[in-house]
Structure formats: C-alpha cells, structure tokens
Amino acid sequence: MGFHTKPTTFVGHVKIKVTNLQQAIKFYRDILGFGILEQTTSTVELTTDGKTSILSLEQPEDVIAKEGRTTGLYHFALLLPEKSNLANIVVHLMEHHIRFGSSDHLVSEALYLHDPDGNQIEIYRDRAPSEWTWQKEEVTMAVNPLNFENLLKHVTISKWNGMPEQTVMGHIHLHVAELKEVEEFYVKGLGLEVVNRYGGQALFLSDGKYHHHVAVNVWNGVGAPKPAKNSVGLEFFTLVYSNEEARKEIISNLQKIGSVVVEENNRIMTQDPSGNSIVLAV
C-alpha cells in the first residue's frame, strides 16, 4: 500500500499566500523547477507532472508580510522519488546560492529552505520503510546531521532538471496553540493516528503507518494566536480520503467532537482548533 495513494489518507495539495506572485513564480518555477498548470492575475497552480497541482500560490489584494509567533504553516514538505534527486537539488541550490539547512531524520533525509516570503519548505527523500524502527506504535525519528559526503555520491550527470514528475506533497507541519484538543481533532475527527510524540512539544500523525502525513507543534508558544487572514502563510491543505463514504464518516466524526464542517467554493472544509484550514477531498 502506497503512503501517498488511496486507500491511505494523505496530503494531496497545499495552498499558500505570498506578497508578490510574480516573484514567487520565479522562485518556484525557475529555482525549484515546478511547472505552471493554470495562472490568473492573483493565483497560480503548480505541477510536477503536468496534470495535477500539488501546490498553489495566491497573492491576496490586501496581503501583509508573514506574522511571527502565530499558528499556521511551519513547513510543507515535497517528497522526491529517489536519493539521486535529493543529491542533484543540493548541487543545484548551491549553484544558485540558495541558503538551506539539512537533517537526517532516520526515516528520511531532508533539506530546509524558505521561499521569498519566508514560507518554509522541506524537500526530502524517504528511506525504505524496512529501515524504519518502530517501538510499539511509535516510529523512531531524530534530528541528526545529514551526511553530504554520502549523499553527493548519488549526483547524476543530468543534475537537476526540475521537480521529478513523481514528486508528491509528502507531509505538512503546522504551528498550533496547544496539543490536547488538536490531537483529539486529528485522531478522533480526521482519523489519523499518532506515530511519534516529541516530548510535550510536537505530535506526528499519519495513516497507513507512514512516519507522518501531518505534524503539529507548539514551538511558537502555547496559546499562540491565529495569523491575520491576509497574512503570508497557509491558506489551506487538502486531505484526500479513499472514497465518499470515508469522507462522510469523517464529517460525522468531526461533528461529534464539535468541529464545524462547511461547503465553501465547492470544497468541503473544516478547521483544526488552532485555525488551520483543511479541505476534505476524495
């Protein structure tokens, strides 16, 4: 069973807000190598396979710069299909003088960087699930230095030629105001399970025993306020369910715990207790 295909529940799409759409397009298209699927004066749908959009950008009319110490986007994560892809983009980012951080999480190898508006992006590749270590119901993860000497042995002659078409939205990581109600929302409401607890600071949740499809943390402070609606950052992310019956069950579960589900712009949407918007899709 794939971690980013049905019947697993996974993050299919992320929409973020930017201050300057044309500047953002140059970064995502010319540096990261996305293709443009659709574009208007204020929005753009980005693609890696030319058919589906996994990321979209919007420049609201009254947009303001990213606000600090709020709930909202910590990072969205682009999952590359091969280790060579990660090696190639390391070289590519260095050639374009793009600053980035890195980490070995045991389950994956990751790079971290920011777009021109400060939206954080993770670009990673997974190790084989057979290499992951589980202690009962929790997967072991870490924040270790990335072994660049080993990674760069996998650079290919063709180097970076844009996002591979098999790239998917691997996961999303969010700032939240507290963890107790948020855990209830994602587990009892959205049907995910906790697969790692990082002390009392963060939770990692998934479906189908992935290392995480969604993570939440209180690193911006317990009780952190919601950002302004027109602030740079997350507009929404999409969770994809296996079929309409599964989605109806999720809607019912959300309503049982007191969460509001609405239909908006032909989308069925809800919000977690910290105000992060989620589209429920099939």
UniProtKB/TrEMBL annotation:
UniProt-listed PROSITE patterns: GLYOXALASE_I_1, VOC
Alphabetized Pfam families for the sequence: Glyoxalase (PF00903)
VOC domain span: 10-126, 168-282
Protein name from the UniProt record: VOC family protein
Keywords per UniProt: Metal-binding
Domain of life: Bacteria
Alphabetized InterPro entries for the sequence: Glyas_Bleomycin-R_OHBP_Dase (IPR029068), Glyas_Fos-R_dOase_dom (IPR004360), Glyoxalase_1_CS (IPR018146), VOC_core (IPR037523)
Presence of the UniProt keyword Cytoplasm in the record: no
Any one Gene Ontology molecular-function term assigned to this protein's record: lactoylglutathione lyase activity
The organism of origin for this protein: Metasolibacillus meyeri
